[in-house]
């Protein structure tokens, strides 16, 4: 909030609109901001300050009070005091309104190591060198293993062997047609030799037809089995990675920006779904066809095996040289795409701020810079690919020339059909050679997409699954035993050896200064991060409970409530578990029945159009619907008006009497009536007990916090 305020002031605008910028700071900081910043730095500018709670406005030129979209009061501060005393009697004291507890909204992010924070926000790890054999083996296993792969191999070899034999039979067909034509021209068709030749001709044509049929059948089988293999591999990789991400600890999302994740789950998944299977099949077909052509050519003249071996060696070496560059360029292209996607995502999310700050030109220049880097990597990748193709064409041309001139120079008794077959096959080898090497190289570059996805599979620490116990939880008792939490392996300890017990149906408040570890306790209860030690609910360690089931049994009203794009019904009851009457009753309990015309009323992403208080009431309605035995309030009343605060507190007392309620307190008076209070400081529990006994300890931290809140003299 203070950074955004500083950014707004730095702009030097004529009018400043400050939307509740003082609610998340304590009284001392709030007074300092108000007097030094708003009344000092902005004294010569128009400033509209929107607040939920009244505060000392002696120096304000005008005070406006709104209620449900209507103007309740407009006048000077002195008139406001008279109206306030007569009408609503609102609190006009800084310290009572803004107690000495800052918002911990970003506590988890604040504990991320500084190195991570100072790094490039769009930076993505880029591997070097060859794609490891383990990546190919993992893809092979995801496709079904040796059984399906063996079927694919047999069908592929059979299909291309049959296709090569058909080409070879054509040469015999040509020679026999010449011999038969010679008999007909000489009118010697009645000779036994002619009849024998006709019999052989019929056998060859029958064999040719059968081989053609076999080639067609095996080609279809090859395509079916191969695509079954690749589709199965793609589905399994995608499911595995998605499952890993969904069940990952929050540490993964702290260290990986959404743009990088979206890049891998969009572009890389598209490659292994749509492009890589085609490239892989082409590589298999062309390589087998190329070897078939080489076998046919060498069968015509065994001397051709020497240039064939040289050709293979030259092509392999050329491909090897290309891959050293092409592989890295492909990875560089993928890594350069992440900043582009990340920038687009951030721009779309911050369109309002961008336009309000008139930063379109700056962001456009930044986008063009990311686009230039990506285009450069893409261009270099395409250029090296074309150069590789040129060298292959030159090599193939030299090989074909050697075959042709060898028939012209060397005197052989090779039949005309075989000579024509060898020459035609050498020409076809040009295209096959070029396509085989390029597709082989393209396959390895596209395997980097599989490598990037499998990296998520191997690196993400997944929340372990467990068994679902019967009728759990029933009482809502919570017990922490030696719980220690670090948000990262190199970060500082957020919680240090916590040990406490919250009884069934007990109402407990958690208080402490900023960074004391209050929100961290909730993070461990919901298993957002991995931790050391044990947490028991109703005597069962929550590490043995499936994460989805655990979180479904815990209700929470967060400081920043989340609403999804959809309808009132889908936000309240996404799994259609309750009747409409029950949904309306829940909305009525929180005073929001009249806020929506029907349950199919549309709710925009993030709950646009609803105030923070209304969103929190909506979350409270969700909690009422599920009626779980544990309710967590994470700074739930920090940024709302007193009326909504009173309504939430009243509803909680009425509807959650038989539930365990854990409240992280922003305002100390909201938890002063709790059964027990946990006082946190530096990640450890410094006090724990009933509020009355804690107030008796005048040397304790809780007593000092109560003094600052003016709850004690």
UniProtKB/TrEMBL annotation:
A cellular component term, taken from the record's GO annotations: membrane
Keywords annotated in UniProt: ATP-binding, Membrane, Nucleotide-binding, Transmembrane, Transmembrane helix, Transport
UniProt cross-references to SUPFAM superfamilies, sorted A to Z: ABC transporter transmembrane region (SSF90123), P-loop containing nucleoside triphosphate hydrolases (SSF52540)
Membrane-topology descriptor: Multi-pass membrane protein
Domain ABC transmembrane type-1: start-end pairs: 150-445
Spans through the membrane: 137-163, 203-229, 290-316, 388-410
Location of this chain's protein in the cell: Membrane
Record-annotated ABC transporter domain positions: 478-707
A GO molecular function held by the record: ATP binding
Protein name stated in the entry: ABC transmembrane type-1 domain-containing protein
Species per Swiss-Prot/TrEMBL record: Photinus pyralis (Common eastern firefly)
